[in-house]
Amino acid sequence: MDRRTFLLAAPAVLGSGCVSVPGDASGPPIPAPTVRVGDRWVYNCSDGFRVQVTWVETHEVITIDSTGIAVRVTLVGPTMNYERVELWQAPGIVLIGSAYDNAETRKFVSPMIRFDFPLTPGASWRQQLQNVDPQTGLTSNISRFVRVGGYQSVSVPAGTFNALTMRTIMQVDDNNPFRFPTQCNYVTWFAQEVGAMVRETKYATYRERGDIDGFSIRSQNTTIELASYKLAPR
After folding, report:
1. Is 186 exposed, middle or buried (0-12, 13-18, 19+ CB in 10 A)?
2. Do 142 and 172 meet the contact criterion of CB atoms below 8 Å apart?
3. CB 41 within 8 A of CB 226
4. Backbone angle region of 122, left / alpha / beta, with phi > 0 → left and psi within -120 to 50 → alpha
5. Is the distance from CB of 199 to CB of 186 less than 8 angstroms?
6. pLDDT tens for residues 162-191?
């Protein structure tokens, strides 16, 4: 990436120092959850602007062994039917999984820290991630900054939770010859009693190379809400 491309494409990550996050900053840290085979979280999801695409997304822990924690993710809706498996090194630490699109699978060169436990109000972390596309052999580069906010009451179909908020500012460069890197702004609500997020909003835009007007094109407007969950016996 040349200097002009970087300056055009990286405003979100460069401005991460002044990121605001909702919620009351007072409250205890959330420790890493204890994960068991059979833990399952079901989410109602929607994406789009004028016409909404909807689906149900299920995350279920299927194995825990020396390689890590395997989580099967299924996305089922009128226009989609996907299944993939994530591999976590530990809760919140992703070896194989998604960073941008819920249907994608990336094998990270270094693990992605999705949640840096214990989640502490006011804390933050930053990563430069890479994954190689097995079909093209090209390396994708992801710049990711996460700041933890405070506690906020949030109501979703599964109930009302006192959840800890986080904002993720991310730039995804998938070597698309026609686009500058995608700029992402996500907000996540994580509830300790659920051991997972209970709500997430995802907004993203990109700009086309060669577009002298530099208009941002909206590419993601996603809402994910917990519909139900079941934790295996502890």
Report:
1. buried
2. yes
3. yes
4. left
5. no
6. 999 999 999 999 888 888 999 999 999 999
pTM: 0.89
Of 185, 189, 121, nearest to 155 by C-alpha is: 189
Residues whose CB falls within 8 Å of the CB of residue 30, separated by 6 or more in sequence, listed in order: 117, 118, 119, 164, 190, 192
Token digits of residue 113: 């820290």
Question: Residue 96 carries which side chain, given as an amino acid letter?
Answer: I
| Class in CATH terms, 3-48+118-230 | mainly beta
DSSP-assigned letter for residue 7: H
CA dist., res. 204 & res. 201, Å (int): 10
For residues 215 and 211, give the distance between their C-alpha atoms in angstroms, rounded to a whole number: 7
DSSP state at residue 208: B
